[in-house]
UniProtKB/TrEMBL annotation:
Family as reported in the entry's similarity comment: Belongs to the MAD1 family.
GO biological process: attachment of mitotic spindle microtubules to kinetochore; cell division; mitotic spindle assembly checkpoint signaling
Name listed for the protein in its UniProt record: Mitotic spindle assembly checkpoint protein MAD1
Coiled-coil parts of chain: 8-49, 78-124
PANTHER family in UniProt: MITOTIC SPINDLE ASSEMBLY CHECKPOINT PROTEIN MAD1, MITOTIC SPINDLE ASSEMBLY CHECKPOINT PROTEIN MAD1 MITOTIC ARREST DEFICIENT-LIKE PROTEIN 1
Amino acid sequence: MLVFGSADSEARAELSTLRTEHEQLRKQLQQQQLEKEGLEAQLEERALRGDYNPATSRVLTFRDNPAAAAGSRRAGQLERLQQENAELRGRLEVLGDGAGSGLSQDAAKQISGLRSQLRAAELRTRRLKEVFGRSTQEYRQSRGAGDTIQLLENGFSARLSDLVEQYLYRQDSMPGFLAALTLRLLRDGPPAAPAPARAAARAPVRPPPPDDDDDCEIVELD
């Protein structure tokens, strides 16, 4: 009986040792599996970036490939911009020195002319803003006083009959009409300029003169 007990104890000890070794091996396998997945992810990321292993891979590229052509164009543009920048710096230095050379005088004349054009453009813009402001104020005052505004008919306004009917006649809303007109112009573009009349074109037909008994006035529309 003692012999069997001793063998059983040894078997239990060996089983415990095997279980410990098994657990250690399982942890090592799990760790190696995680490392393997991490390496695979790194390889995939490097492959997406275009990296490769020179020891196992060799990359062949065409001499005239799109990437090289684009890089060459960018390098040429950069070199050209740097050259233009250097030339502009040189001109600025010449102008800053105030020397009485012909180049500085010509440049000063050009700058003076550009400043005059800029002042004239700013003046025109300011005058247009003033005119628009007065027109807007007059429109608001006339609408507030209950005055009636008449839309003169011409070749362009004749094509806006639907907007006139909806926003001016039905809703009595000038802002709505202007907003709808703006959206239409953005969608369709500005109206095309009318074609010039030919020399051999037929003369426009004039309306007949009014009778003496009729109290009316004929107004020609553009």
